[in-house]
């Protein structure tokens, strides 16, 4: 069957917004089609070559960010600190493993959420669930699905990317500055100090290398940063497709990397859209996935078995990963795929009505992921995390207790690791857990 960015429209779809104002939807789609692309095909090809490098065991993926970005919380300082935290984690893991860290943010487009329940009850009233700022608002009176929000998502993605590009190209990622990445509130905690000590060691090594006459370029691959989000609202994703005038082919120019989530893996329209775009694709893999089904999906999404195209994101939960992952690892050994672990989404629990995750459960899943990959002879290619630069109390562990969850619970959707927990995780991963 031939593919175009709109062939998904003739297939059954799940998790799609219900827009009452269809006329406005069509106008918004037209407007988006006229906007400049947010990313460039050459960058996507570079990312694919890096994913291929990961498959060869020569690099490691660090993918992470908010569960859902927010329109209200856009700030330059927030983006700067997010980028700094990402660089810190990359320094920690990359230095320990002696390899390139491929940095992919869940940012600049991560505005739409799938939900298990279409409606929720608030104070005895049934209202549509919050679906992410691209679709509706978290405020109780803003739950109607509004196509206008796609325009705002585009503009916020654009300004976020603008700053990220400035940081990655403009010297913020200069290796000589790594001792300045600590965020204020971690400077005096043990993890911040541990980072400082590491940064000092690396700076000394750099100074030594430079004293030998080796020139370390201020602009280097260390600052390279890619963005990603779940390809959920296909009206938006279709409208952002552009044909590459140089190399040909259609790219979804809303982001470098897109993924299919656990709730859209059964949505024929989503699979159809994803199969034709030239971006690399993530597939969330839960314990419900069978080997046969996964191979079928790979046949559809990557029929010529190209390297660098597919990242399989195991999100199993600490209880299920040991039984569910090995058959899938073995079944995909002959395929060009990279396996990474999302230790967040299979470990969500409710405590006093609040969604949270235990740091220990997250660690346990990661530990098992590495061990199972090793047992099956598959390279453990990276991690996919929900994390923030902010000092939030959303996941339990370290300084955050069950009782303290309410202190700074700021997420719009799932609980995130705070900056200190993220650093701790990076050190543990660097040290082989
Ligand atoms: C997510 O990544 O925020 C998410 C909803 O994940 P999953 O589709 O794996 O549940
Ligand atoms: Co989430």
From TrEMBL:
One of its GO terms (biological process) is amino acid biosynthetic process. Phosphoenolpyruvate binds at residues 106, 262-263, 284, 315. GO terms for molecular function: 3-deoxy-7-phosphoheptulonate synthase activity. Binds 1 divalent cation per subunit. The enzyme is active with manganese, cobalt or cadmium ions. It is an enzyme of class 2 (transferase). Mn(2+) binds at residues 67, 345, 386, 414. It holds the Pfam family DAHP_synth_2. Its cofactor is Mn(2+); Co(2+); Cd(2+). Its EC number is 2.5.1.54. Belongs to the class-II DAHP synthase family. This is Phospho-2-dehydro-3-deoxyheptonate aldolase.
């Amino acid at each position: 069957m031939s593919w175009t960015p709109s062939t998904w429209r003739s297939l059954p779809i799940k998790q799609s917004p219900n827009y009452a104002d269809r006329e406005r939807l069509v106008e918004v789609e037209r407007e988006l089609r006229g906007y400049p692309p947010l990313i460039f095909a050459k960058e996507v090809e570079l990312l694919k070559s890096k994913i291929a490098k990961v498959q060869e065991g020569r690099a490691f993926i660090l993918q992470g960010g908010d569960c859902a970005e927010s329109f209200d919380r856009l700030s330059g300082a927030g983006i700067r600190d997010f980028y700094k935290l990402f660089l810190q984690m990359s320094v920690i893991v990359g230095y320990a493993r002696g390899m390139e860290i491929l940095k992919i943010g869940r940012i600049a487009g991560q505005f739409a959420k799938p939900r298990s329940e279409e409606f929720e009850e608030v104070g005895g009233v049934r209202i549509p669930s919050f679906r992410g700022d691209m679709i509706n608002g978290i405020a109780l009176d803003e739950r109607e699905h509004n196509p206008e929000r796609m325009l705002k998502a585009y503009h916020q993605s654009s300004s976020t990317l603008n700053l990220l590009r400035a940081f990655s190209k403009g010297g913020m990622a200069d290796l000589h500055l790594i001792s300045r990445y600590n965020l204020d509130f971690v400077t005096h905690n043990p993890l911040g100090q541990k980072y400082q000590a590491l940064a000092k060691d690396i700076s000394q090594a750099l100074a030594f290398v430079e004293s030998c006459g080796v020139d370390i370029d201020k602009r280097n691959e260390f600052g390279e940063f890619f963005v990603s989000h779940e390809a959920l609202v296909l009206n938006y994703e279709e409208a952002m497709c552009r044909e590459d005038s140089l190399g040909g082919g259609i790219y979804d120019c809303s982001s470098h990397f897109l993924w299919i989530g656990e709730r859209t893996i059964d949505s024929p329209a989503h699979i159809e859209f994803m199969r034709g775009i030239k971006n690399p694709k993530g597939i969330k893999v839960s314990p419900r996935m069978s080997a046969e089904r996964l191979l079928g999906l790979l046949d559809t999404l990557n029929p010529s078995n190209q390297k660098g195209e597919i990242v399989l994101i195991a999100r199993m939960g600490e209880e299920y990963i040991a039984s569910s992952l090995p058959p899938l690892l073995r079944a995909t050994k002959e395929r060009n795929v990279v396996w990474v672990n999302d230790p967040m989404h299979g470990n969500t629990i409710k405590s006093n009505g609040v969604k949270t995750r235990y740091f220990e459960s997250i660690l346990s899943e990661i530990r098992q992921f590495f061990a199972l990959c090793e047992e099956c002879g598959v390279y453990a290619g990276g991690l996919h995390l929900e994390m923030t630069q902010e000092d939030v109390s959303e996941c339990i562990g370290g300084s955050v207790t069950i009782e303290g969850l309410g202190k700074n619970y700021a997420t719009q959707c799932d609980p995130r690791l705070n900056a200190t927990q993220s650093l701790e995780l990076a050190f543990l991963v660097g040290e082989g857990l």
